[in-house]
Amino acid sequence: MEPAYIIILFVIVFAFVKYLKFKKRRNEDEIIKSYNRNKRVAYQKSKPANGKRRSKEEIEKDNARYAEHLAENSRRHSEAERIKQSRLGIKRYIWRSCEDGDECAECAKNNGKTFSWSKPPKSGHPGEGKCCPDGRCRCYPEAKL
């Protein structure tokens, strides 16, 4: 191969890698912009189907929908924290659970331990919901400076 082709190939590969980094950064910016930490998750009640009171099934359905909304909010918060901390150069975090006795065994075991963002534990980062049986993890990462 001639040196000119090698240089052109190198420039193309370099430009492609820069484009991928730019695209990743733009996606991360969208995640951070779309997440509002101070926003309160409102409990949405459905209208009763027949009459003045909701049935037990309707209440259970509303509670399940609210819990799923809280879990999604927790996952978004965890992802936004990961992005913010990695941009600040923070490489490690302390796993924190809500410590109310309602967390799963894996969350209770990881509470207070230090992990790296680049090497997550087998259960995933806090808030991802991989370790909890119902997928509703309420843990959060605390930056370790």
Structure report:
The radius of gyration is 22 Å and the shape is elongated. It has helices spanning 3-34, 56-87, 105-110; strands at 92-96, 114-116, 140-143. The chain has 3 helices and 3 strands. A 3-stranded antiparallel sheet has the order 2-1-3. It is mostly helical and 145 residues long. It has a domain at 60-145. This is Phage head morphogenesis domain-containing protein. Keywords: Membrane, Transmembrane, Transmembrane helix. It comes from Escherichia coli. Residues 115-134 are annotated as: Disordered.
Quick description:
The chain has helices spanning about 5-35, 55-85, 105-110, and strands spanning about 90-95, 115, 140-145.
